[in-house]
Predict the structure.
Amino acid sequence: MNILILRNEAEIGQVLGDLFCALAREKKNAVLGLATGSTPLPSYRRMISRYKAGDVSFKDVITFNLDEYCGLPADHKNSYRTFMRQELFEQIDILHKNTHFLDGNTNDERAESERFRRLIENAGGIDLQLLGIGRNGHIGFNEPSDAFTQEAYRTALTESTIAANSVYFDDCPMPRYAMTMGVGSILRAKRIVLVATGEAKAEAVKAMLEGEVTPGCPASALQNHPNTTVYLDPAAAALLSV
Ligand code: GLP
């Protein structure tokens, strides 16, 4: 894994936003794997400003999001579909039909998982996957567990994740379950960029980069990916030994 420590989250957002724009310009039907949470926002803002400046078009781009809560209507203000619409899709020229999400309300988890796997495969695989990291080392919503997960599945969220994300749920309880791409499906991306900023992520970053590869820290699986770069600010990198 490559590790880059940049000055702050704004600088990381600029570099990564430009990376996604470069791919959209270079490759017709580029396939982007996208993430939610607060960490990707500076990257999305950079993509929006490059689009508004006329530098890039996302009309031919295809996206897949990592995860979605179970039990929320798709248009709920806290759904990840709504998040992506508000924070990125409505502000660029991406076509709605090219944006893909797992259905958190499916009655058939296996069929939904298979549908998503095939869609990604038929698109040619994910060219560039953006990841954040949870305080407990989760990626997507793959929580620490006994075995690495493979394809998309329905997962129970841990107390740590519920505590971290509850702040976004001001008028309804936070869902306890989510559909998420599995670690195996995330690792099939051709190239991965993971971003971690702030001291709350420092322990997870250390475990991911310097700990053993273990499903107890799902992000540690990235140590086995051939093309992953981790972007950190100084606070998130503070506990690293090198
Ligand atoms: C959420 C998302 C993850 C995200 C993580 C960190 O639960 N499912 O994809 O990386 O938590 O979120 P944040 O960037 O807000 O710290």
